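protein under study:
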Amino acid sequence: MQKIVNLCLVFVVFCCICCHRQTQQKYDANTPQELIDLYEKINKDAKNPELFNNLALYFIKNQQLDSALNAISKAINLDSTNENYFLTLSDVYFAQTNVDLSEDALEKALSINPKNEEASLKLAELHFLLKRYDLSQKFVEQTLKLNDYNPKAYFLLGWIFREKGDTTMAISNYLKATEQNSDYYDAYMELGILYQSRLNALAVDYYNNALNCKPNDFQALYNKAMFYQETEDYDKALEIYKMILQNDGHNKLALHNMGWIYLAQRKYEEGFVFFSKAIEEDESYIEAIYNRGLCSEMLNETDKARQDFMYCLKLNDHYQLAIDGLNRLN
């Protein structure tokens, strides 16, 4: 670990030279004003590390990761005692999928300030993504010792317990997150998903809470419609799918699911129409192609059904539903 840190410091010195050269560049007509303003401030105060940190954050936001690394390296070269600069460095490395160096930067931030909640939670997230759930939980609990009103910490605990298979504790922690932050969209969505898996109507309440945070949000509307579809409340499901299509008339998922409901209701002609619309949006939408074939089969239009089943097999020659469909027709 110490060797990696030392190598990083050598790299910092090299990068700061590159960054300094970059700040002297001329601007063209396509240079964003925000970037010009940042460079102008740096040219006036080239030893201010916070300006280079801000420049790095700009580059991260715009997915210019090499430039971001150069900028934050300069900030650290100017002030290696500011833990926030190592948080930015961690974000750059993480965006570059360099997980080990991202972890090193976070550990450096915590070594500077062991009470930095953001660093602790980012380490928890990193370990969670690597499926190190016990280690992730350790860093979350460490954060809660510092601040037991941190909604993100409870949300992460919910994630951890969900992955460990303890849905009761997951729900408990998601609820604690919403108690600390009543606009916690992601927590409401997770609660909705967990209750939906139990076919519990509380799922709808949590999706509604999510929609209060983000009105007309597609995912919350779609999940809510799927709950009604799975519990065979087809009228309510159709109502929501129509609402989705009012906002996005090309949404293939809503089009397909409306077709599926009509198929379940034995309204095969209506189902055929909506499956066809979904296929217009995605010619490789194999579920829609098969289900359209199924509608044709139910309408005794065997040539159309056979054509769709064969199309499915062109997309996936092991698609068992299509194989079974062709066997029925033969």
Remarks:
- The radius of gyration is 27 Å.
- Residues 9-23 have pLDDT under 50 and may be disordered.
- The first helix runs from residue 2 to 23.
- Residues 151 and 177 are 4 Å apart (CA to CA).
